[in-house]
Amino acid sequence: MRLATASLAFLLLAAPRLEADSPFAGYSERTGFLLTPPASQGLGLLGYDNPALLNYVESPEVLLAWSDAPATREEVGQWGVFAGLPHLGFGVMREESRGQGLHEYRLSCSGGGRRLGFGLGYGWATGHTSDLGRHRHLALGTLFRPGPWLSAGATLTAPVAGGDLFGPGREAVVEVAVRPPRMRRLTLFADGSAASDEAGGARTWSAGAALTAIPGLTLTGRFFDNRTVSFGVHLGLDRLGMATQSRFDRDRSEAHRTYLVRLGSREPNLVPTLSRRHPRYLSLELRGPLRHRRLAFFDRGPTLTELVGTVRRICRDPGVDGLAVDLSGIEVDPVMAWEVRSLLQQVRDAGKKVVVYLDRADLYTYHLASVANTVVLDPAGMIVLDGVVSGRTYFRGALERLGIGFEEWRLFEYKSALESLTREGMSPADREQEQALVDDQYALVREEVSASRGMTAERFDRLVDEETLFLPAAAVERGLVDRLGRWERAEELLRELEGPHATLAPGDGRTAVRDDTWGPRPRLAVVYALGVCDVEEGMQARRLAEELARVRDDREVRAVVLRVDSPGGDVLASDLVADAVRQCRERKPVIVSQAWVAASGGYWVSMYGDSIVAAPNTITGSIGVIGGWLYDQGLKEELGLSTDHVQAGAHADLGFGMRLFGLELPDRNLTAEERTRVDAAMRTLYDDFVAKVATGRRSTAAAIDSVGRGRVWSGRRALEHGLVDRLGGLDLALRIAATKAGLDPDRSVELVERPRLGLRDFTLSRAGFPELRRPPEETLAYLRFRLDHNGQPLLLLPTDGRTGFLPRP
After folding, report:
1. Confidence grade of residue 569 (pLDDT, cut at 50, 70, 90)
2. CA pair distance 109, 132, nearest whole angstrom
3. What's the pLDDT score for residue 758?
């Protein structure tokens, strides 16, 4: 960087002032439409000027520019059309000179980032190119923005002639702009260019200032080396931007004007009342599964982080009056439903309205929808309020018939993860904790639905217990929905609600207002710990620990949010991740966001977070250890198989048995001596678990033991017992992380999500992607997991093999 700057400065100072035809449009002609140098304000000419600026283009942009200068003037650009995409730009400029015209084109691309970027442009001309000496040319650009206070740009342009990449006729440009601290609306700038003899030998410079008087209105003034001045104004009108400037000669007479119109990304709106003259709603389609992550390509399903960002932008946007949400066919677990509901409540708290459309809804989907100002049900839809249930399939009888024995190892009555293999129904302790969970789940839904729909808790109970299923007419009559309608006619419905001029526009990520802040945005990392705790499968603990180490060492990442959705599993896998979290916390804040399940091993990976955030209906806790031993109790003989072996060591045959379909079933159970050793190991492991949680939670072992012993808790009860710090979702966790990192939670930040997914990730079915689950595959996966960890103490929640290691709501 220093070498490039020194070289450009040498060219700037050494180039002589000689007049000659230029092989390309000079810097003054290229940027004559702009109110300021390219590196100072906005996106310049979308790479036509400095191709490195394309790093700041985030959505399609088009610029139209023209000048009213008389065609008799020499080297004056008459009009131009410029288009840009992220990292790619194209433009054409029409020039008139000496009564002749030509079109000069440039195709540009960029690389790097917002802090330091590079760009390359390739240009050519058509028209009277030979008369004007125009050639094909290359432009190299760089842009250095270390922070929001400094922007420095440089370009080097040279013809491509005689087979040389850089022929004779170079031009160098240097630009510098600053925004003083506490005066970010003021930009001071200066620029200079120097051309070699073959490029005309011109040297120019200018200096000036730009002031954003109010959002959407920028005023500029610029002084040029030939003692001419220009004054300009830029108006931002949402997706439309307009700019004009007047250039004055030395005698203060107006020389000419330029005009520029921009279409593309949203800007701060100068006249928000114009966009609010008629109600404007944004649409949000949440059909299908709402997930944590998306595949790299051909996957457009909504994700939770995108939804958080969209809702934040809508809340801040004065040009948006409301949000229309399509929940038809949505697939969410109870916690994600509550999180989406909380986000929609934020929209209402911001003074905007929410309209929700349903076709078919169960209890949790209706819980989500009830937050809306207006709930619309499809004329052929229905609502089923059937309550909350939790249960498992018990395999004891099947194992006995198959000839498979199982011995359960447990320390406490609440650690019931393996009861499905040893019992034919719930134990009293398991029934107690499961009933408490479903009671808390039901109470949360009843409390929030009743408050939103203006009914008593008793009336809600009667609707659930005495009616349950509601067809459209009954749903309207009972006050569950406000009207009937189809999503395809949503705009007509809005006009009925808000008046004949209400509009409905797409409400995806394109609602973002373009951020004109220089330099890299503050970064927060969201790291996903999803699925069963296993070293290579599910959560993929080794890979996850490596990802945590990377974000720990990444100086651009200011804080980390660990999103946990796991019922636990292997002790080694859990501790690998927990230790990586602890090391990361030593360098930067780590906030844990617990999703639907974060219990047992899922709580182990959470315990070292600076703060733990759980939803009221999160299933968490289950601080305890359990184990068991599957062994052959006649299956081998029933299949007509036999085994034989030799051994060295008294216990070498403990895991030996028949192998079938890649699974190994031991021939024998443990002896009394071996079981004693297992009991001692499990006690030691439990004491270690409690001690680590006490350290992470800044508590005592006695206090943790009193709420541990394998007991699961809802997020609301976990808060009362000090196992979590706040009730909320991913949005709250991100806000806490930003605050602890010294950032404004409402400021635009860049989210870095890890681990990334590829084209097809075969761990998805155990990582929170219910739409990819297949019951036979999950049952086999559960059996394989049990046998792979046969005889190992586990940190595992009660599970149902049909649902991918997750309890069934």
Report:
1. confident
2. 27
3. 63
Tokens representing 784 are: 């394989």
Contact of 715 with 729, CB cutoff 8 Å: no
Sign of the CA dihedral 126, 130, 134, 136? positive
Cis peptide before 506 (omega within 30 of 0): no
Residue with tokens 């681990």: 755
- Among 114-123, 247-256, 557-566, the range scoring the smallest mean pLDDT is 247-256
Band the pLDDT of 72: cuts 50, 70, 90.
very low
Q: Which residue has the higher pLDDT, 716 or 159?
A: 716
Q: What angle do CA 313, 588, 768 make, to 5 degrees?
A: 60
Helix (H) or strand (E) holding 247: strand 240-248
DSSP 93: E
pLDDT at 13: 35
Asked if 573 and 534 touch (Cβ cutoff 8 Å), the reply is: yes
Taken in order 699, 581, 523, 751, the sign of the CA dihedral is negative
Give the per-residue pLDDT at 167.
62
Which stretches of 370-427 are DSSP H helices?
396-402, 419-422
Give the three-class secondary structure for 263: strand
The tokens 């309207």 sit on which residue? 476
Distance CA 530, CA 595 (A): 9
Q: Which residue has the tokens 């009193």?
A: 706
Residue 9, pLDDT > 50, answer: no
Spatial separation of the C-alpha atoms in residues 503 and 491, rounded to whole Å: 7
pLDDT tens digits for range 448-468: 999 999 999 999 999 999 999
Q: Which residue's entry shows tokens 């390359």?
A: 120
Q: What is the structure's pLDDT at 21?
A: 61
- Round to whole Å and give the CA distance between 111 and 372: 44
Whole-angstrom distance, CA of residue 612 vs CA of residue 662? 40
CA 37, distance to chain mean position in Å, is 33
Length of the chain in terms of residues written: 809
**d(C-alpha 97, C-alpha 105), whole Å:** 17
pLDDT tens digits for range 160-192: 865 555 567 889 999 999 999 888 889 999 999
Please name the residue that has the structure tokens 């009933």. 435
Q: Where are the beta strands (DSSP E) in 23-99?
A: 61-67, 76-85, 88-97
pLDDT at position 698, please? 93
* CA 554 – CA 547 distance, rounded (Å): 11
- Contact yes or no for 569/764 (Cβ under 8 A): no
- Is 669 exposed, middle or buried, given 0-12, 13-18 or 19+ CB atoms closer than 10 A? middle
Higher-confidence position of 788 and 593: 593
Query: Is residue 808 pLDDT above 70, yes or no?
Result: no
Distances from the Cα of 169 to the Cα of 22, 77, 132, 155, angstroms? 7, 20, 14, 14
The CA distance from 612 to 727, in Å, is: 9
Report the SS3 class of residue 360.
strand
Tokens 């021939």 sit at which residue? 667
- Rounded Cα distance between 649 and 667, Å, is 16
Crossing angle, helix 334-349 and helix 428-453, to 10 degrees? 20
CA angle 570, 572, 578 (to 5 degrees): 105
Q: Measured in whole angstroms, how far is the alpha carbon of residue 491 from the centre of its chain?
A: 29
What is the rounded CA–CA span in Å between residue 388 and residue 338? 15
Question: Which of 252-256, 555-559, 613-617, 791-795 comes out lowest in average pLDDT?
Answer: 791-795
Helix then strand count (H, E) for the chain reads 22, 35
* Cα dihedral 781→782→783→786 (10° resolution): 120
Q: Is 82 exposed, middle or buried (0-12, 13-18, 19+ CB in 10 A)?
A: buried
Exposed e or buried b per residue across 116-150, where buried means at least 16 C-beta atoms within 10 angstroms of its C-beta:
bbbbbbebbbeeebeebbbbebbbbbbbbbeeeee
Hunting for tokens 């586990």 — which residue is that? 794
Spacing of C-alpha 415 from chain mean position: 35
Q: Is 387:368 a contact under the CB 8 Å cutoff? A: no
